[in-house]
Structure formats: C-alpha cells, structure tokens
Write a structure and sequence with these properties.
- The protein has a single domain, classed as Purple Acid Phosphatase, chain A, domain 2, CATH 3.60.21.
- About 20% of the residues lie in helices and about 25% in strands.
- The chain contains 6 helices and 14 strands.
- The strands form 3 sheets. A 6-stranded mixed sheet has the order 1-14-2-3-4-5, with helices on one face. The chain has a 6-stranded mixed sheet with strand order 6-7-8-9-13-12.
- Helix 2 runs parallel beside helix 3.
Length: about 300
C-alpha cells in the first residue's frame, strides 16, 4: 500500500509540474535587465532591446500584446536574433505586433524557423543531441525580411552594416543561422573590413555555436548577441539548463558571459526568447524573456 501511495504522489507531482510548465510559466513573459561595461571610454550608455525566439503563432494574442508594448522600454537599439515565426501563417501577426519597434534603429538575423514552419519531433530527443532542422514547409521569409529592411532594420544574415546610435558609430557583423548550416563565417573578414572605421563592433548570430563566437570575436566584435537556446527551456533548480541545442555549454544557456579567442575578448548575451515550438509548449524554471541590455562605457 505504501508503494501505491508513492505512485499517486509522483503522478500528482508530475501533473502539477505539467500544469505549471504548459499552462502558466510559458505565459510569464519577463524583461531581464543587464548592464555591461563594454563601450569606449566617454561614450553615452546605449539601451539595447534584445528580442529572440518568438516562435509566434497567429492565435498567441497574449504574446503579441507583450511584444507590441516593448516600445515602452524606450530602447536606443533593437537586436533581433531570429526564430520570429512558429507557424507558416504568422507573418502578418508578427509584422503587426512588432511594428512599434520599427521606430527604433534595429538589426536582425534569421533562425531556421524563419525559413520553415516547425514539424513534430520527440521532445526527449533534445536530451540526446542537438536537433536537425527540417525543410518540409517553407515560409515566405522574404515578406518578413523585406518589411524589416523597408522599415529601416539592417539585415545581417552573412552581412555587415553600420548605425550611429547615441552619438556612437557602431559596426555590425552578422551570420545567418548556423544551426541550419546557413552561416558563412568566411564572410566575416570582408564584413569587418566594410565597417572597419566604426568606433565599436557588434556581432549578431542566431545560434551561439562556439565556432561562430570565435569568428565574430576574432574579427573585432566586442559584444555578441545570440538566441536559439531558449535558455534550456526545461531547467532544473540549481543545475539550470539541461541542453542548449548546440555546442554552447549549458551554464551559458542564457544571460551574459565573457569569452576569449586568440587573445581577443568579447561579451556574449544570450536571450532565452519568448516562445517554444507549438509542438513542445513547455517552459520549466525558464520563464520566457526579452533582455534590455544597457551598454556602458568602460572605466
């Protein structure tokens, strides 16, 4: 009888965890605040709104409302690290809710879900190895990216660009989605040369594979923004993330960390994102987030 009671206890505990992860936590959208002393001495602070991994579906009105209100944070710059879409019919909903942010200078790269809508896969498979992208349901990516560009955001998918923000000339170098094999690190040297007169260099990538971080750092990026990991999505107390879906160590699945490659250093900010695949609508000890990172001058 005692053994049966423990079975009931475990079943009840599992049910409560599922209710929390599926029905509550994935709707607890957060803004995470961080300050990093990385800008040249004497520069004015720059408030960067880092958005990522919306995985938006047309029916997700609560998430759309949260995105629409992000303009109230009054950022100086928006960095969008991809996986905006989570359904092939979500583009109009995305462009509608994100439109207030077009009033702010911005840059973006794509994730694999911006090219192909998701398909079902066993969620437990993520514990064994990084997932492989599927290419069964192409999305009208150009409708999204053309609108982003027309509204003034820089496309950094294996491209560079430059913006003047808060009086500082910032050069951007970027990579398309490494998880989908679309990143081309060989372009980084050319990109860096194109923005070589910038006072400060920023790297942008969707998936923070170590090779991408190394390439961006060696080409002069002092600050790197990435998404993709979902912060682990399902985490454990104390231990944190179980996976990152790439080769980034789990302790760096979200937030800020410092890196060094070949004698050059950079800061990495990983955003855990706002969404999940529609086929795995779970967040556990990893609330959905955007990040407001204030870049500060060095001492």
């Amino acid at each position: 009888m005692d053994g049966l009671i423990w079975v009931y206890v475990l079943l009840a505990l599992g049910a409560l965890c599922a209710i929390w992860a599926i029905g509550i936590e994935r709707y607890l959208f957060k803004v995470r605040y961080q300050g990093i002393k990385v800008l040249p001495r004497g520069a004015d602070p720059i408030r960067v709104l880092h958005i990522s991994d919306f995985h938006l579906a047309p029916w997700q009105k609560r998430k759309q409302g949260f995105i629409r209100n992000l303009i109230e944070l009054k950022p100086d710059l928006v960095v969008n690290t991809g996986d905006n879409l989570g359904h092939h019919e979500a583009i109009d909903s995305l462009l509608d809710c994100i439109s207030p942010l077009f009033e702010v200078p911005g840059v973006f790269v794509n994730g694999s879900n911006d090219y192909h809508s998701p398909t079902f896969r066993n969620p437990l498979s993520y514990l064994l190895k990084a997932s492989k992208p599927t290419h069964h349901n192409p999305i009208d990516t150009e409708k999204m990216t053309d609108t982003f560009e027309r509204r003034g955001w820089l496309n950094l998918n294996n491209r560079s660009g430059a913006l003047r923000v808060q009086g500082l000339d910032i050069g951007f170098i970027g990579l398309d989605d490494a998880h989908d094999g679309l990143a081309d690190p060989k372009t980084l040297s050319k990109q860096a040369a194109e923005v070589g007169l910038a006072q400060f260099m920023v790297g942008v990538t969707h998936a923070p594979y170590l090779k991408m971080l190394e390439g961006l750092t060696l080409e002069g990026a002092k600050m790197i923004f990435a998404g993709h990991t979902h912060g682990g999505q399902v985490c454990l107390p104390i231990k944190g993330a179980l996976v990152t879906n790439c080769d980034l160590p789990t302790e760096f699945a979200k937030g800020v960390s410092e890196w060094s490659f070949g004698g050059k250093k950079s800061w990495l900010n990983v955003c855990a994102g706002l969404g999940t695949s529609i086929f795995a609508p779970v967040r556990f000890f990893c609330a959905p987030e955007v990040r407001l990172v204030t870049l500060l001058p060095q001492d």
